[in-house]
Automatic annotation (TrEMBL):
EC number(s) recorded for this UniProt protein: 3.5.4.3
Entry keyword Hydrolase: yes
Gene Ontology MF term list: guanine deaminase activity; zinc ion binding
Lineage: Eukaryota, Sar, Stramenopiles, Ochrophyta, Bacillariophyta
Annotated protein name in UniProt: Guanine deaminase
InterPro entries, per database record: Amidohydro-rel, Metal-dep_hydrolase_composite, Metal_Hydrolase, Metallo-dep_hydrolases
Amino acid sequence: MSTNHHEHKHHLKIDDEWKIVRAIVGNFVHCTRHPFAVDESPTSIIHNDREDVVFLAPFLPLHLNHILAVCEEGKIRYFGPFTPFAWLKTVEIVTLPPYAFCCPGFIDLHHHAPQYAYAGTATDRLLTGPGGWLEEYAFPAERSLRDNPEQTRHLFQKVVQATLQRGTTSVVYFGTLDVVPCQQLVDAVLQYGQRAWVGKVCMDRNAPADYCQPTQQNLTETQQLVQYIYETAGKRSTSPRLPLVFPLITPRFIPTCTPELLSALGDYARSEDLHITTHISESIDEVQWSQALEGGAEDATILHQHGLLTRQSILAHGVWLSDTAAQLLRETQSAIAHCPLSNFFFANQSLPCRKLLEQGNLVGLGTDIAGGYNPSMLSACRCAVIASRTLDHQRQSLTNQHEQSSSASSTLLDYRHAFYMATLGGAYALNMQNHLGNFEIGKDFDAVVLTVQSNIFVCPRRDTMADIFQKLCNLADDRNVSHVFVAGKQVIGSS
Ligand SMILES: [Zn+2]
């Protein structure tokens, strides 16, 4: 957002043009672009000549004492330095405390809602095989929702509340194999006013006999869920407002989906212009299983053959993508959902996230509930930073062993890169960058306010505002989430 843009907007009588209903006054932080979009060092904090904007990095301005106005449709209509506009008298004003920052709402690109029931357990299992994660935990937990509508409703309400309370405004949710629990998940999302992509999990092979469907039934129930979402949340092409819930084509992963099913899902996604999600090249055992079934082909190649790599595809993990596969994802503009906590347990390695971002791959963050046990996107941010440091340690130890200077470039990410992936990076991954991810005029106002509470120590004479924001990034939890807004509506916190 340029300064000119602000000055231009100053002179607009925005109350004549839009019905402003709410204004937020305080400090704002958001990413204005990709961290590696141009050759600039993101390491130093730049103070520009305006005292009310501090750049934490060239892509990450911190706006002090600003005002943001939201119209009736939930969109941002003004964002600039605080000015006592006449129309402020007629709207609801949310004035933030001095040590609070309004940030774009977090976007969780990978979440298995039914698995929230056992999040925090099963961390001692392998992903696949007898007694493994899928067979012992994931499949039974998902299947159990089939016969317990009350329990399912309660669980999904808790899922949506837990994510909203942590500032996650958009989530890409895997449902279950059965369509009815998926419809209940849609209901819970709409009840609490979150934004979500909800998919019926598809499986027609290598799944337990009582948790597997014939190929055609997978397709029929997927279409049923898509229709249900259009009926309850509206259809994007015909709604004046951006719907809160979007349909999602969701083959679980290649080992549980026949080529016929993958092709049918790819065709349907194309015909309806739908988002797609699945797992890709997650772990050594998953990669070996896929290759044994598909004549040695890589996951990315197989998905591409079936029309499942599109600009609206979100692929979880990608830890073991080859360079060719990563290139295929760039060419198709398919995104990666980086789930660092889950990767520590199941993937045998960390994603070379910085390299992928520098190469131009679209990468956002996911919690992967319950492969990752923590529903907080701030936790996912911290894990992404730690994962990047483990890769750096590996690089250093290899360099020492071979006694040669490493020519490998940096693997390191810091809290600012992670903040990008949790916000604007997630919006780009979903191809929603024109609607979500930062505070540009015209976007939907999806936001979280992070506020210093007694769990974070602030030393006023020592800490700059940049320090306080970094403390929140590293130390905040749900106690520090004072307000959450989705499409301009306050969904968490008292106004
Ligand atoms: Zn997953």
